[in-house]
Amino acid sequence: MNRIHYSLFACTNAVIFVSCTGSPLAENPAAVAPTKDSLVALERRSFEAWKTKNVRFWDTFLSDKFVGYGSSGRLDKKSASTEFSGADCEIQSYDLAEEQIQVLAEDVALLRYRASVDGKCGGEKVPAIRWAASVFVREGYTWKKVFHAAAAVVDPKVAVVKLPGGKAEDPASGDADTEALLSMEKQVWEAWKDHDGGRLSGLTTNEISFINIFGSHFGTKAEALQDWSAAGCDAKSVRVTNAAGRMITPTVGILRFKGTVDGTCFGQRPGPIWGSSIYVKQGDGWKWAFGINLPARW
């Protein structure tokens, strides 16, 4: 478990609708809606860039707004380009399966999939199976990767999260966008603590999905609400701190944060998590559309 966020971030990032030479794939790509096949094909290119240590690939394929999580914690475009370059990795093979697309807005799409990787990074074997999420945003005539995170698939009843120390916590942002999303995130966590499916339903969009710290994927709203309302976790209190928001478009935002739970999940006391939630603006308010949680390393 202590390695579960190793470098799949490196595996799957930064793809846009361009040819290998950087030219648009269509005469007017801005008029082409994203499809699952298109996003999966481009995601596979990023795997190949990671495998072949194609450093220049990430400069063009990552949005300047990119945020995510990697083995070192929070990533922006600069740090992601370094980590995703695969300089210390030796990847033998990879594959993507069970791909699903979730359109968040006209110019924003979420791709979720189950990835398998055979390889090592930093001399250690990377997790073989994980569920990953990548968000693409249309910028002009191209689609660029603006978010990525992945969680290794483990058995929640036997996995033990080990938390090495040695790094200061990420600072929180105090801007208005962050505060608006953080207010909603706290409500979601409180409703989860109370196993209140009705409240959770009202705080979320009609179509949602979720990947938890054990790499379990819930692809529909019904599945996610059933999991959140179940008795797997008994939380006495929850905290959401160190939040930082990023607006992808005026109607889609990403909130990254640190979450802590006082209680137990599947008989274990959970450690802190790195969380990422995507919100969609509906009317005058924000609603939760997707989230992925990773065991924090500090």
Structural key phrases:
298 residues, alpha+beta, Nuclear Transport Factor 2, Chain: A, 2 domains, 7-stranded mixed beta sheet, 6-stranded mixed beta sheet, 7 helices, globular, disordered N terminus
Written overview of the protein:
With 298 residues, the chain is an alpha+beta fold. Strands 1, 2, 3, 4, 5, 6 and 7 form a 7-stranded mixed β-sheet that branches. It has a 6-stranded mixed β-sheet with strand order 9-8-13-12-11-10. Helices cover 22% and strands 44% of the residues. The chain has 7 helices and 13 strands. The longest helix has 18 residues, at 176-193.
CATH topology (level 3) name of the largest domain: Nuclear Transport Factor 2, Chain: A
Beta-strand percentage? Answer: 35-45%
Shape: globular
Arithmetic mean of pLDDT: 86
Number of domains: 2
Structural class: alpha+beta
Distance between the ends? 13 Å
Architecture of the largest domain, according to CATH? Answer: Roll
User: For the report, how would you describe the main beta sheet?
Assistant: 7 strands, mixed
Residue ranges: pLDDT <50 for 5 or more in a row?
1-31, 161-167
What pattern of helices and strands is seen along the backbone? HHHEEHEEEEEHHEEHEEEE
- DSSP strand tally: 13
SSE diagram, text form:
Elements: H1 8-11, H2 36-51, H3 57-61, E1 62-70, E2 73-76, H4 77-84, E3 89-105, E4 108-121, E5 124-125, E6 129-139, E7 142-152, H5 176-193, H6 197-203, E8 204-211, E9 217-218, H7 221-229, E10 233-249, E11 252-265, E12 273-282, E13 285-295
Helix pairs in contact: 5-6
